[in-house]
Amino acid sequence: MAPLFFVRPGELRHAEWEEFDFEKAEWRIPAEKMKMREQYIVPLSTQAITILQELQAYTGNGKYVFPSIRTSKRPMSENTVLGALRRLGYTKDEMTGHGFRSMASTLLNEQGWNRDAIERQLAHGERNNVRAVYNYAQYLLERHKMMQHWADYLEKLANPTTILTLKTA
Question: Is 14 in the active site?
C-alpha cells in the first residue's frame, strides 16, 4: 500500500477502517494524525480499493487496517515495515518506508504532473508564505486522476510482460 499512497509511514501504519470511503474513493486522515495538523484526503485508485477490500477480510473487524501482531488495539510497529523491506532484499541505502514518497514525487514530476498537486498529495504545506495565506486549493480532481495514473503505472511495472525501453543518444 505504501507505493500506492505514498503517505508518511506513520500515517499508513495508523490507518483506521472508519477513515476509508470506498464510494467516494477517498481516505480521510484526521487532523490529529497529520504532521501539519489538518485533515488530509488521499484519493484512492481502483487498485488500492481492490487491495483494501481484500484486506478487509483479514483485519476489517478491528480498528486498524494494519494491526499489531500482538494486539489489535495498536497498529503495527514501524519496525514491521522496515523488516519487510529488508526481507524483500532492500538495504537501508536502497529503500525505506519513507522512500516511496520521494520515488513517487520524482517520477510524477518527471511525468509532467502539476507540481502543486504532487506537493498536496505529499501533504506538504506551501513554502511561499504569501501564497500560503491565499491558496487553500486541494487539487482533488487532478489528484484523483494522478493517483489512478500512478497506480496504473506501478501495475505496469509489476507486470512481468512489460518491456521498458531506454532511449539512446
Answer: no
CA distance 157 to 135: 35
Output 135 or 54, whichever has higher pLDDT: 54
- Which H or E element spans position 75? none
User: Quick check: is 60 in a domain?
Assistant: yes
- Does residue 134 carry a catalytic annotation? yes
Range of the domain at 143: 2-158
Mean of all residue pLDDT scores within the chain:
85
At 72 the three-state DSSP class reads coil
Is 167 labeled as catalytic in the residue annotation?
no
115 is catalytic: no
Q: Which of 63, 86, 124, 145 is an active site residue?
A: 124
Model-level pTM greater than 0.85? no
Q: What mean pLDDT comes out for the span 141-152? A: 95
